[in-house]
Design brief:
With about 300 residues, the protein is an alpha+beta fold. It folds into 2 domains: about 5-105, lambda repressor-like DNA-binding domains (434 Repressor (Amino-terminal Domain), Orthogonal Bundle), CATH 1.10.260.40; about 120-290, Beta-Lactamase (2-Layer Sandwich), CATH 3.30.450.180. It has helices spanning about 5-15, 20-35, 35-40, 55-60, 65-75, 80-90, 95-105, 120-125, 150-155, 170-175, 180-185, 190-205, 210-220, 225-230, 280-290; strands spanning about 135, 145, 240-245, 250-260, 270-275. A 5-stranded antiparallel sheet has the order 2-1-5-4-3. Helix 4 crosses helix 6 and helix 6 (about 80-90) runs antiparallel to helix 7 (about 95-105).
């Protein structure tokens, strides 16, 4: 078995690990990337590896080395919120990373994964935004609806009815396994990293969702790039920013995006992309919209 296959199998197996083991994986990785300087630790002896030592994290968090070791080994069951918060501070976790740690440990409210068709009102909302490229995403980033411009911008090579069939396209899978989708992004590496970070964030809430496990397992086997990024354990909410496209119809296209979470709080959300008014990107988006109108 080559190294890439081994990584993929290990990553796929990671989707079936217990909550305690996933907490351990996350803590070990975060400890390895925190420098002593960032944590305020003064080193008096040479270090063989980067990152903090277990005893340093334990001391910073105010817990025993034995207990922290058990956390990293995945054998400490039901850690308290106070302990997790202390460890999060010691590891300089961001608010997003801290929330992810609590979800992995089961100390945060989790939302059960619910499969439902997108409401007619949501599709109607997308259709009434002709100047905005919009797509609706499921908790695991299946594309379950889009408007005409959303389809034209993100996946014009796919059938317009693709989101409404039994196997809707998956936004992350397209990015890693579909050549046309990969070529669409001028900064593919950045976009891929954000996609995995967002999926990792979602995985804390929907850890028991079989669809999520299937997606991670499939992509870990089919895409070495995904397997590598997933093993890095990036975490990001990815709610706003800029997507930089090289579109096959209109060429260079930079769009500002916003991600809106639905009030039902069931993991479905809207990805809305628009251009700066009066810009060349706005002109390109209007041209694309005009070319997608059916006579």
């Amino acid at each position: 078995m080559d190294p890439e296959q081994a990584t993929a199998r290990q990553t796929h197996a990671g989707t079936e690990r217990t909550a305690a083991e996933q907490v351990g994986d996350f803590l070990r990785h975060r400890r390895s990337v925190v420098s002593p300087e960032d944590a305020g630790v003064v080193s008096h002896t040479p270090r063989r590896v980067a990152g903090l030592r277990r005893e340093e994290v334990a001391e910073l968090a105010g817990v025993s080395l034995t207990y922290y070791t058990r956390l990293e080994q995945g054998v400490a069951r039901h850690p308290s919120t106070q302990v997790l918060d202390a460890v999060a501070r010691a590891l300089n976790l961001s608010s997003v990373e801290r929330a992810h740690l609590h979800r992995l440990a089961g100390t945060a409210r989790t939302v059960p994964a619910r499969r439902r068709s997108v409401a007619t009102a949501m599709q109607a909302l997308l259709d009434r935004m002709p100047d905005v490229a919009g797509i609706a995403l499921s908790p695991v980033q299946d594309i379950v609806a889009w408007n005409r411009l959303g389809h034209a911008v993100t996946a014009g090579h796919l059938d317009p009815g693709a989101p409404y069939g039994p196997t809707p396209p998956n936004k992350v899978a397209l990015l890693f396994t579909d050549p046309a989708s990969r070529a669409l992004h001028r900064e593919w590496e950045h976009e891929a990293s954000l996609a995995v970070a967002s999926l990792r964030y979602v995985s804390g809430t929907f850890a028991t969702d079989p669809a999520l496990a299937r997606l991670i397992g499939r992509l870990s086997i089919e895409s070495p790039d995904f397997a590598h990024l997933w093993a890095e354990q990036p975490i990001e909410l990815c709610s706003t920013g800029t997507k930089r496209f090289h579109h096959p119809v209109v060429g260079r296209l930079d769009l500002t995006y916003e991600v809106l979470h639905l009030p039902q709080d069931d993991g479905h959300r809207l990805l809305l992309m628009h251009a700066v008014p009066g810009s060349s990107d706005d002109d390109a988006l209007r041209l694309l919209a005009a070319q997608t109108i059916t006579p």
